[in-house]
């Protein structure tokens, strides 16, 4: 009984650096610098260990004598251009999405990632619980993409994508796939998946003997990119945040639809 009670108590505890991150006060790197520099106190005592356990609901954490307060939660939607990395900085000097955000992006983290060659909808926030819910594959939040395939796809290839394909890290879940149109050398598709593996859509096309020529994410759950210009951002509305939370809570698997499905 005592062991069970102790396990339940520890669920409420977080490491000191994570408390800073969740409060939106700074990155974990910043938190480690402040902590190791003796600027942080817990219940009046200096703590130098970033992994020190803290109960955020009961312990008093201060930074340079000032109480740590939760930052206002921010949620923004960015139309990420191709050629930008979804990271804060790049050792090779390549452009990152934070160059497009200015000061507004200072303490925000991406909810999932888009690779260098993929454009489209990217959500950023300082609400870590929200981000974890959206990216947790168990919640099956649908992500919708428009794809220009490098070849003309047969009905059989599309059916294989719908049924799920075998990848190096295991089989994919069934996907909703719609043929938008065929060109002389390409098929244009809309695909909705409920996972978020690394380069998943590209690998799925390769698994059916094709490749992605162009890839744009147009929706996450009920949130759509709409008419937002490439490289621009906007705040998510309260309704959009609420709907995304609800989508994750009910483990929805239905597709999101975008009015600009024929944008190519």
What do these coordinates show?
This protein has 264 residues and is an alpha+beta fold. The chain has two domains: 2-67, Roll (Structural Genomics Hypothetical 15.5 Kd Protein In mrcA-pckA Intergenic Region, Chain A), CATH 3.10.290; 75-249, Pseudouridine synthase (2-Layer Sandwich), CATH 3.30.2350. 24% of the residues lie in helices and 26% in strands. The protein has helices at residues 2-11, 16-23, 28-36, 128-135, 155-163, 200-207, 238-249; strands at 14-15, 40-42, 45-46, 53-54, 61-63, 66-67, 75-80, 109-110, 119-125, 143-149, 166-167, 170-171, 176-182, 187-193, 212-220, 223-224, 233-235. Strands 7, 8, 9, 10, 13, 14, 15, 16 and 17 form a nine-stranded mixed β-sheet that branches. The chain has a four-stranded antiparallel β-sheet with strand order 3-2-5-6. A hairpin with a 2-residue loop joins strand 15 and strand 16. The longest helix is centred in the last third of the chain and has 12 residues, at 238-249. One of its GO terms (biological process) is enzyme-directed rRNA pseudouridine synthesis. Residues 245-264 are annotated as: Disordered. Keywords: Isomerase, RNA-binding.
Sequence-ordered SSE layout with sheet pairings:
Layout: H1 2-11, E1 14-15, H2 16-23, H3 28-36, E2 40-42, E3 45-46, E4 53-54, E5 61-63, E6 66-67, E7 75-80, E8 109-110, E9 119-125, H4 128-135, E10 143-149, H5 155-163, E11 166-167, E12 170-171, E13 176-182, E14 187-193, H6 200-207, E15 212-220, E16 223-224, E17 233-235, H7 238-249
Parallel strand pairs: 9-15
Antiparallel strand pairs: 1-4, 2-3, 2-5, 5-6, 7-9, 7-17, 8-9, 10-14, 10-15, 11-12, 13-14, 15-16
Helix pairs in contact: 2-3
Family: Belongs to the pseudouridine synthase RsuA family.
Pfam families: PseudoU_synth_2, S4
Domain RNA-binding S4: 14-76
